[in-house]
Amino acid sequence: MKKLFLSLILIGAVNLGFAQSTDSVLVLGKKQQLHSKILNENRDYWVSLPTGYTSEESKQYPVIYLLDGEQNFKTTVGIHAFLDRGPRAHFPEVIIVGINNTNRTRDLTPTKAVSVRGNATKENSGGGENFIAFLQQELIPEIENRYRTSEKRVLIGHSFGGLLTVHTLLHHPALFTDYLALDPSFWWDDQLLLSQSDTLISKLSLQGTKLYFARAGKHASRRKVAHEDAKALQADFTEILEKNKASGLQWKYQNFENESHGSIFLTGTYYGLQYLFSDIKP
Predict the structure, then answer these.
(1) Which of 53, 94, 111, 208 is paired with 152 by a 20 to 30 Å CA distance?
(2) Backbone angles phi, psi at 182, to 5 degrees
């Protein structure tokens, strides 16, 4: 029933209308392009603005930066439209930026490694730090120059994107105020990020920073061993977070037994956004 309910969110959001619409056209967002000198390529991204953006000329808005934008932008805009609907809305208006991929494995893996999953080789992986530099030095300044943004920045990532989200939290904690990681690929590079996590987080001061991460409990029969490994790795990460409460990080972990790796994005984003924005009244 929970999965059916969440699936209906998107239908309801469409019926209620998204942030930008006219009488005859329903617009989820606008496609933009930025040339990245760091990545040496053009990068497409989508922007969804709040309904009242043009009329409320002094108001500033939190920004959600979304990895895998070509797959997850519509879903995220739909979830937000559902949470933000009507006079009884319990979620603030936000700007949503969906970042499209050009080379997903390259950009979302923080180290070079070889893996069948993701068709990874040492030649097409390990560009995560370059991609973070693109976010920090090019995309975020572009968004903040063009739009009225508040200090609250959220990064959302799934799978490899979840891996990079946690990597960013541990290596560049001030870049975002909030992090949402769904089924992060902690197995990458012989679990290197996880093995570094205890040492890294023990040295950080994360007061005012929030993390939500979630795991999908359902596995494909052919991937049972890998699934059980992922379950153990995420349990290990929760233990590391528990051990390092002194860092000041606010965090929440949820396990969704009825969701698969493919479906966790919808459920995890719905509950994750509510947690990350629980301290902001609409």
Answers:
(1) 111
(2) -115, 120
- Provide the whole-model pTM: 0.90
By the 8 A CB rule, do 9 and 82 touch?
Answer: yes
CATH superfamily, region 2-276: Alpha/Beta hydrolase fold, catalytic domain (3.40.50.1820)
What is the spatial distance between Cα 197 and Cα 188, in angstroms, rounded to a whole number? 14
Which residues, other chains included, contact 157 with Cβ-Cβ below 8 Å and sequence gap of 6+?
67, 68, 108, 163, 164, 165, 180, 181, 182, 184
Report the C-alpha gap between 123 and 110 in whole angstroms. Answer: 13
**18-76 pLDDT, tens digit each:** 445 556 677 889 999 999 999 999 999 999 999 889 888 889 999 999 999 999 999 99
Give the span between the Cα atoms of 268 and 273, in whole angstroms.
8
Q: What token pair was written down for 277?
A: 């924005």
